Amino acid sequence: MKTIAMYLPQFHQIPENDIWWGKGFTEWTAVKGAEKLFETHNQPRIPLNQNYYNLLEHDAISWQANLMDKYHVDGVCIYHYWFKDGKRILEKPAENLLRWKDISMPFCFCWANETWSRTWKKLSGTNVWSSLYEVKKQYVENGILLKQSYGREKDWEKHFSYLLPFFKDKRYIKIDGKPVFAIFKPSKIFSLWAMMDFFNTMAKDNGFPGIYTIGMEEKRWGCLDAGCIRQPNSAMVEYSAKNMDVHQSPARYSFEELWKIVQEKKIRHDKIYLTAFVDYDNTPRMGKSGSAIIGVSPERFYENFKKIYHKSLLMENEFVFVNAWNEWGEGMYLEPDEKNKYAYLEYLSKVVEECKNEKREEKDLLEKIYETEAETKLRVKEENMQIERRHDKLLDNWMYLRDLNIDFSSYLKKYGYYTIAIYGTGRLGTHLFYELKNREIKVSYGIDKKFDAVSYPVKVYSPEDQLPEVDAIIITIIDQYAEISKQLCKKVDCSMLPLEEIIEELLLDCQ
Fold this sequence. Notes:
There is one protein chain. By secondary structure, the protein is of the alpha/beta class. It folds into two domains: 2-10 and 46-115 and 150-369, TIM Barrel (Alpha-Beta Barrel), CATH 3.20.20.80; 380-509, Rossmann fold (3-Layer(aba) Sandwich). It is built from 17 helices and 21 strands. It has helices at residues 15-21, 27-32, 58-70, 92-99, 153-168, 192-205, 233-240, 255-264, 283-286, 298-314, 343-355, 363-369, 373-403, 410-414, 427-436, 481-489, 499-509; strands at residues 2-7, 75-80, 107-111, 116-117, 144-146, 174-175, 178-183, 212-215, 226-228, 251-254, 272-273, 275-277, 291-294, 319-323, 326-327, 332-333, 419-423, 442-447, 460-461, 472-475, 495-498. The strands form five sheets. Strands 1, 2, 3, 6, 7, 8, 9, 11, 12 and 14 form a ten-stranded mixed sheet that branches. Strands 19-18-17-20-21 form a five-stranded parallel sheet, sandwiched between helices. It has a two-stranded antiparallel ribbon with strand order 4-5. Strand 17, helix 15 (427-436) and strand 18 form a beta-alpha-beta unit. The radius of gyration is 24 Å and the shape is globular. The relative contact order is 0.11.
């Protein structure tokens, strides 16, 4: 089993950060400016020997690789940024690593697929806000910096083509020959199944048996190979629901209590990876609006990491993730600092050495790891409630677009979809038909399981019928996109578009 540490590439200067946060900004700027906000607050954090490295320098990457090799960190999962229209940022450290073949640093990517907003409150007054990025009629701290949208096949091909040289590198982490590619928030990609099918096809066309995808969310989406419970994020959500400490400024979380939540967390019966965390403190970025964990120590990390490592072995996982290698602005780092020196790395290495020959069948423990049938039913009930909330949010966002007189058909025209069909002829499907009427878009027909019992302005087919050709089918049934798409692809050759995706992209375009 490999120990993989999450890796932040923001320790070098880029033009965008110069504009957003001030000339010369890197992650170190926030780290150096951190303040002690309460008596036991471990701030500011200082790298050992004040090693404020620059990730564009060969020696810095080489130093990290040597540390990893010495202390049994088997590789890093580098945050990868790919925004709307293929905009890249913070890509140079990985691109340099690709060129520097002499550096032995196994790596894979985690696509951090989130829109960047100006929410680092502690830094919001450090620079004159640029009109190039400012969003009108919004507060500065909520301004959009980089928009995350996903496009369609041409955009996906461009993205995969960029990733391909990395996948081909011998150091790139693979499972059964498949490059490992993590996605930070797969739930945000409504056409995820279509995108991953496209990526898999391209991977096979380029000599791989496929691509191994991990969603960094607890749910394993059907089109992905695995899920991953990100920590301390998951535990902090549960802790917040039960404790008043989070209402302080900054919010405070007990290290011991968070790890207790992690250790007691039941795992769904699926392929799920586990994450250990070192610490957490984002006050260098957020100031008093931030959060910090208290009661942290290398010894407690050792005790808890060993349990997670052992549990991952019992689950026969290929990886255990550690958050993080160098998230200095969020207090999550294995790298040596002035306070603890190499203690975290030494304890991590100790766990790996101790557990090398410890794997054994422990049926009783395995039964405690996974959900009971009753717990699964409760979780499914909550997930169904979340789908209902998504339905309400979709309608609310749709009405907002109408208030702004946004042309709904602009998304379809952008991708050349002029003749469409609508799957689901209920309320959403009916609203959609009239939304597109007289908009240069022809709604050719509807599709519905109850095709013989619905009243609709155009002909309605059964999903079992052979369907007439159209440019695209818009699916209005929430959270069933993959299943519906697979069924319809057998009947007609066209693009499948989730209604949620269209509305989300139109919202993004108007910001």
